[in-house]
Amino acid sequence: MEQWQKNFFGMLETLTGEAERFFLGFTEMVDTLFEISEEITDQVQTSIVSEIDQYLSDLAEPLLEVYWELEEVVGDMDQPFPYGVEPTPEEHPACIGCRHYHGQVYGGNLLVCGMHPYGVEAETCPDWQLGE
Question: How many CA atoms lie less than 13 Å away from 55 in the CB half-sphere?
């Protein structure tokens, strides 16, 4: 084989070896970059999650306090809305069938009617009228 052929094949071997080392080094660099990016991503996710958790905690805490205070206020009330009570033979018998009977409880107080807010103590009511 002639000298130029030997030199050419030698250069090809050198070029192949250098290209192989370049790509091996490049592969190691890419692997290292992936590892670093995974670590950075984990750290960012951890810090973002902790910051979001803290933010939500700071946001929710006053709302929960207001909710608990409101629950205490509502719990102290008998019933928040008026409710009706029908007259019975034991309670307000003079009002049975009367058109003026109101029978709503407000804040724990029964309003029997406009003319007799606490009801009539007698057996009959002077203002009784047949209900419609």
Answer: 6
